[in-house]
Amino acid sequence: ICILDSLHYNPNEPPQMIHNFPPNQSHVRIVTRPSVYSREVLNINAKLYALLGQPEILEVFDHAVWDLQIPRALKRGSFPHVYVRNLTVEPGTDSPALAYLDLTNNYLRKVSSIASLINLEVLRLSDNFISTLDPSTFENLTKLRYLDLSYNDLSQISITNFPKSLIHLNLYKSQLSSLNYATLNYPSLEVLNLERNDLPFIDGPALLLALPSLKLVRIGGNPLEKYDLQQILLLFQRRNISFRNEADEAT
Q1: Apex 246 CA angle, 245 and 250, nearest 5
Q2: What is the CA radius of gyration of the chain?
Q3: Whole-angstrom distance, CA of residue 194 vs CA of residue 218
Q4: Nearest alpha-carbon partner for 97 in 52, 47, 55
Q5: Can you tell which superkingdom this protein's organism belongs to (predicted)?
Q6: Fewer Cβ close by (within 10 Å): the C or N end of the chain?
Q7: Which pLDDT tens digit goes with each residue over 123-151?
Q8: Using an 8 Å Cβ cutoff, are 45 and 90 in contact?
């Protein structure tokens, strides 16, 4: 791993160095010293990525990255809590290689650009400002297994448009008030988190029919009637589906 402390990069300045990696190492982490938080806006784009030697893994911590351009050769990117407002993908004809993307705790409102990230397997979008999602955003993400949209406003979003390949779906505290069971269908989903939403009713049998592979579910913190909650938990128990702390709320 190559750790770069307090990196300065101006896209308008001529390049002075291109990073060369030792064999079998291709991981860059851009940080600042623990006592210093960078006030400089760091432009992450394909040009900087090339200067860094096109690492397979790129992580940025404790910087302000308002505009983030995903390089097409990047395989794993972590950009949590770096004030990302705009997300784009490097222009080109090759399919983006990105398989893992962490954008937790940023300022994103639109994420339509992820539609081209067809090799994506893990996507973390927790704690942003997402309130709209184009139905086509996830249409071609057939490899996506893990999706975290917790702490967003999904009250006007249909959760039936996510990839059928999902194994883990986190919708914790996403202001959901209803589920469309008629179109809900995730045959591979094993983990579902619906905690701390606004769901007044959950149709247990319909949910299990839509999610035949379900192993773990979280439904605590919704305005469910006590009897309804108890019945749902009994159903989960009979199917050997874990529900952890929800039993405390039913007693």
Answers
A1: 125
A2: 21
A3: 6
A4: 55
A5: Eukaryota
A6: C
A7: 999 999 999 999 899 999 999 999 999 99
A8: yes
Structure tokens at 27: 């991981």
Distance separating alpha carbons of residues 139 and 169, to the nearest angstrom: 16
* Residue 199 near residue 225 (C-beta atoms within 8 A): no
Strand-pairing partners, residue 147, are: 123, 169
**Distance (Å, whole) CA 130 – CA 138:** 14
Helix runs in 23-62, H state only:
46-51
Q: Do 89 and 111 form a contact (C-beta atoms < 8 A)? A: no
For 168, the token pair is 């883990």
Of the candidates 93, 88, 13, which has an alpha carbon nearest to the alpha carbon of residue 45? 88
Give Cα separations from 114 to 30, 50, 70, 80, 203 (angstroms).
23, 21, 9, 16, 32
Scanning the structure block, which residue is given the tokens 């057939």? 142
Q: Are 95 and 115 in contact (CB under 8 A)?
A: no
Q: Which helix (DSSP H) or strand (DSSP E) does residue 168 occupy? A: strand 168-170
pLDDT per residue as tens digits for the range 141-177? 999 999 999 999 999 888 889 999 999 999 999 999 9
pTM higher than 0.85: yes
Structure tokens at 205: 């049998």
11 Cβ neighbours under 8 A, 6+ residues apart = 43, 45, 47, 48
